[in-house]
Amino acid sequence: MKKFQTLIKISLISGLLFTSQMAHAGTLENLERERAQLIETFLDANLNTGERLSKIETSKPRLIDLERMVLRDDKLTGRNTPTVRRAFGNYDLTFLVHASAEKNRTLFDLWLTQVGITTETIMVATKVAAPTN
Amino acid sequence: MRIVSLRHLLASTAIASCIILTGSVSSFSATSNGGSKTLPSWSPTSSERLVKLPPSYLKKSLDRDLAESQLGTAIKDNNENIGHKGNTLSDLQRAIETSEGEMRLELRHQFLAEKRAYLDLMEHQIDLNRKQAKTRLRLYERMLKDFGSKNANESAGVKQLVEKQTLARDRFKSSLAQVDLKVFETASFAESQYAVKYGQNVQAIEKLLDHIKQHEMNHSLTSDGVEMTKEEFIRHMATEAEAELALAEQDDTILGYMAKLVALDAMALSEETMDAELADSPLPGNSSPAQAVSFFMTN
Q1: pLDDT category, A24, cuts 50, 70, 90?
Q2: Looking at the complex, does the CB of residue A102 fall below 8 Å from at least one CB of chain B?
Q3: What is the mean pLDDT of residues B10-36?
Q4: Which of B113, B118, B138, B186 has the smallest set of CB atoms within 10 Å of its CB?
């Protein structure tokens, strides 16, 4: 009985800790969610150029605010979770809007560079994939 | 006869004081570290609580804690006794100047005895102050250890993450104006409510922080006007406690020399009283055989 009670206590405490961790990572989660939406827009084959640009422009103000909230969130300082480590591991990839404005490049162009898709890599891939006669 | 007895008594007590004082000159340094005396105690509030206090309040809290402790009460009482003894010495000194003869001798003897008592009180005061300084130093060292352990507990991974976060924030701050210019001047959307309210809140926060800095209870300045962090302030106080300990050693040396002077004064007084005694006592006559030569010249 005592063991059972101890087990319940441990699971309650762990649950509380996990919940609190999730609550603290709120700003970063929200940013990642919005960024995922943006990347979906980049890759949506059903959109034409105009529609794509329009959707990107619509998400820009939300992204700016979310990026600033994450950068100003002191609760994330030293919070050594994989999400936080990944986010701050690459500024240009995480804070796309700020980095693109800083470097005077479009969001899509910067994102493609960050994930390793450049003209050179496409040309190499094309050559490799080209059928040999 | 009565006068001789009094002088004899004074001379013997002066010699006895002299012997005791000469022995105690060297013993001042031997017992300077508290020796075998049990001194009153002082156990300050736990260092974890004190670390959370603002710097200026920290010092006042400690001083109040000391004043309410057994050690603090003993220091205060001893200080008062030293004051009274000082007045007694001053009165005796004045009385000696205006007196003469036996009364002067008696007063000088009393003066020596009071000086000895004064030195005992001063020795006790030094021991109490030394104990106070050592207790403070131990407390400050514990507090500095608590500060250090907070930083030491961070793993290498956390430190690396914090470094990256700091770099990201610095980059963000340095590019903020440029980004605002590019994004909001060319875009079709205005600044969001978050951006506007954030700006207002930042101004309010800066005003409040300014007010807090200037608040009289928030002074963390040294005497030369240099602002310090809490850790630096505690190090500064630890240095002051070390200085007090070093000065206590010097005070012991001073007391040693004072004791030697009292011993020499006691020797001088005992010599004076012995000289006077010897001058009064009649010396036995000395017969010479030459005076009885005539008896041996005739049969």
Answers
A1: very low
A2: yes
A3: 50
A4: B186
Is residue B15 exposed (0-12), middle (13-18) or buried (19+ Cβ within 10 Å)?
middle
Q: Where are the domains of chain A?
A: 26-129
Question: A60–B187: do the CB atoms touch at under 8 Å?
Answer: yes
**pTM of the full structure:** 0.53
Least confident of A45-54, B59-68, B160-169: B59-68
Give chain A positions within 8 Å (CB) of B167.
91
> What is the domain partition of chain B in residue ranges?
2-155+233-281
CB-closest option in B172, B187, B195 to A65: B195
CB contact under 8 A, A80 and B187: no
Nearest residue of B to residue A58, measured between CA atoms? B189
CB-based contact B143:B51 (threshold 8 Å): yes
Size of interface A-B (CB pairs under 8 A): 65
3-state percent helix, strand, coil for chain B, nearest multiple of 5: 80, 0, 15
Which two tokens mark B233?
Answer: 């302030």
A102: nearest CA in chain B?
B179
Rounded mean pLDDT, B149-154 = 62
